[in-house]
Amino acid sequence: MAMLELRGVNKAFGGLQATTNVDLTLNEGEIVSIIGPNGAGKSTLFNLITGVYRPDSGDIRFEGRSIVGLKPNQIVDLGIARTFQNLRLFTNLSVLENVLISQHHKLRSTWLSAVLRTPGYRRQEREMHERALQKLAFFGPRLMSFRLHQPVYVLSYANRRRTEMARAMATGAKLLLLDEPSAGMNPKETNEITGIIRRMRDEGGYTILLVEHKMNLVGEISDRVVVLDYGQKIAEGSYKEVVNDPRVIEAYLGKKAAEEGKTADLTDELHTGFDEPSGARGAPEGRVTR
Ligand SMILES: Nc1ncnc2c1ncn2[C@@H]1O[C@H](COP(=O)(O)OP(=O)(O)OP(=O)(O)O)[C@@H](O)[C@H]1O
């Protein structure tokens, strides 16, 4: 049975069809990347899976059960956690506190047991603390050193991203949705985060769906790559298959490039295509529903 399954998922905003009939399957232990030019619907898909948006039609199943209509916190409870393109951390709290807070939904206590600090309450606190450190340890001294107790507002952008990933892991999730995990990272840091994502799967046992613009990261770790364009899935396969797919080349580089048979490895050019400002291409015919 697939861990996550999307069938015919549609979502429109006013007259704009943000996702059209999207099918997606994710098996346990896979790392799958979603790529596509700006405005292709990648973040919308994450928002649909995590219950921020409800699909207009279609079904989303997690471990065999439909999660359509569940609230985001209920979806976290089932085992799906995410990071955000624009980070959502409590900047006045420390790295450790941010990761501890993400486990609060699991705390089984009453107001009285918290005030009295009963043995049961303290045991749960200890377990949460251990789990937080275990997840933060994936990032090594970047977060585990003196940084553990630093408020998030003093951290670099890259360290904030790492903290968000540790926070998602600590929720107790089995499936992690990572939205541009390497954004704001230099090539050395990107290389490092690529290795960490692989370890999250291999050692942490997580299944991972990621949206990413850096093609070297996508090529390096993806078992499968799904390409969206104007809300539709236009290709799916290995990294090599999709970057050589004429529909993908056309989506990024235009019809001319596709006709010229530019089917070599497009890593650099694809990356350039991603740097277009959001919405730069305008809406194609057929996407606007009214
Ligand atoms: N809440 C919203 N209200 C109206 N339109 C939206 C909303 N969210 C997304 N859209 C539109 O839906 C389309 C898909 O947006 P989405 O953010 O999912 O794309 P994306 O692939 O994540 O883009 P990027 O790579 O720039 O982050 C865009 O045209 C966007 O403007």
Question: How would you characterize the overall build of this protein?
Answer:
The protein has helices at 42-49, 72-78, 95-101, 111-116, 119-136, 141-144, 157-170, 187-202, 215-221, 239-243, 246-253, 255-259, 267-274, and strands at residues 4-13, 16-26, 31-35, 57-62, 65-66, 80-82, 175-179, 207-211, 224-229, 232-237. By secondary structure, the protein is an alpha/beta fold. The chain folds into 2 domains: 1-79 and 173-271, P-loop containing nucleotide triphosphate hydrolases (Rossmann fold, 3-Layer(aba) Sandwich); 88-172, no CATH class. The protein has a 6-stranded mixed β-sheet with strand order 6-7-8-3-9-10, sandwiched between helices. Strands 2-1-4-5 form a 4-stranded antiparallel β-sheet, with helices on one face. Helix 3 (95-101) runs parallel beside helix 7 and helix 5 crosses helix 7 (157-170). It is globular, with a radius of gyration of 20 Å. Residues 268-290 have low confidence and may be disordered. The protein binds adenosine-5'-triphosphate. The site of adenosine-5'-triphosphate has 12 residues, from strand 2 and helix 1.
